[in-house]
Amino acid sequence: MPEFVGAIDQGTTSTRFMIFDHDGAEVAKYQLEHEQILPRAGWVEHNPIEIWTRTSAVIQSTLQRSGLQASDLAAMGITNQRETTVVWNPRTGRPYYNAIVWQDTRTDRIAAALERDGRGQVIRDKTGLRPEAYFSGGKIQWILENVDGVREAVDRGEAVFGNTDTWVLWNLTGGVNGGVHVTDVTNASRTMLMDLDTLDWDDELLSFFGIPRRMLPEIRPSSDPAGYGVSSVAGLASGEVPITAILGDQQAATVGQVCFSPGEAKNTYGTGNFLLLNTGTTPVRSKSGLLTTVAYKFGDQPAVFALEGSIAVTGSAVQWLRDQLHIITSAAQSETLARQVEDNGGIYFVPAFSGLFAPYWRADARGAIVGLSRYNTDAHLARATLESICYQSRDVVEAMQQDSGVVLDVLKVDGGVTANDLCMQLQSDILGVPVSRPVVSETTALGAAYAAGLAVGFWRDTDELRAHWAQDRRWEPTWTKDQREKAYAGWKKAITKAFDWSETD
């Protein structure tokens, strides 16, 4: 039997391919960034062709650099930036428009209209989501209404939709030569178009957005022994690898952090932050600004659900310091700069570049830096940026406790920002609980690999996966309760200053 499993991790800023062994240890990886296209304030796009060429390149490069062949891989999984919307012609393989990224706010008026006329409650009841520009449904509607010829192309069978998992899979399995048009329940649950009870597209929801059902991919389990097809990348010419798992990135990280029991939670620090709490096989509707989503579905087993707190801008705020303000030259330098000061110097940074997600859901919000005086330096701003990541996570933890009654005793963390030791210490201080980072911090790709391997028997069951999880580092809180609550009160005051900056109605 092959000794390894592969995972494509198609993220917001980059795409990587990773190979893991039976112990869940990283064997090889290669990663490439792609362009962030920002045509207007609040608009965020990607080039789907670039995403696919990057995906193909990282697979080939990882295998070449590791000396492995396709025949060494038992299976492959895909994980992806969720909600990012692609509409393309399946006969030519050409997208009709750039991918509209999950951070994009151009459809906030569509969401506001749904809320005003009562359809928003139907969306909440059926999907566990709320009408927001964040999700795919409004993005599809925008393309249908604003890109010439797309609606007519749908009628001819020449326009189909997918989030980036579906786009990558379609290309990976042949593209115009028989590419598979499929998604999984976790990605489908992020569209505002799937009913959580039936795990299928809902005709009433489709009518809200004017979306023809024929555009949509087939919905399948997250891990499927039958597979979704085999890869056809040139670098895999030495053999075909079955693709047996698809999960949205945050659900994949939940699997990678082995949060398989109700009450277990993880927080992923990437472009944004995403905290998921496993609630078992019964969906829990939030009353505190969180989302209800599918965590995963393995084969014919019942779907497992989660409460999710989605934060739009965390790691990308550090990128902003690097790429727009040029006060650092690398993400890692944010820690070095922030350590030059002992506190934030009285300033708070609310990075609401694309509005605020959970638990506020304010599309009208925009970024704000408050409390400035001439005393403040770039080091204070760097520290305030790291603190903003942690305060936004506390906002979500507070809401999650209100909805579920679960009080965290430890927070499992993963993602690129967890390499920043100061940020993780601040997270422990601001939450008042220990923070635990696993040995494999890139658990998004690991979760996709786990799900793919389970489908083909590479791993026996989830208990075997639990045995592989190991802690790399743990941070304990050092702030006093009074210090923590005073600082958090300042954050709560600061965040209100970001409201009411953009018209949404």
Automatic annotation (TrEMBL):
Cellular component, GO, one term: cytosol
UniProt binding sites for glycerol: 82-83, 134, 249-250
Keywords noted in UniProt: ATP-binding, Glycerol metabolism, Kinase, Nucleotide-binding, Transferase
GO molecular function: ATP binding; glycerol kinase activity
Binding residues annotated for ADP, in chain numbering: 12, 16, 271, 315, 416, 420
Enzyme nomenclature, EC number: 2.7.1.30
GO terms (BP aspect): glycerol catabolic process; glycerol-3-phosphate metabolic process
Protein purpose: Key enzyme in the regulation of glycerol uptake and metabolism. Catalyzes the phosphorylation of glycerol to yield sn-glycerol 3-phosphate.
PANTHER family: GLYCEROL KINASE (PTHR10196:SF69), SUGAR KINASE (PTHR10196)
Protein name as catalogued: Glycerol kinase
Organism (species): Nonomuraea aridisoli
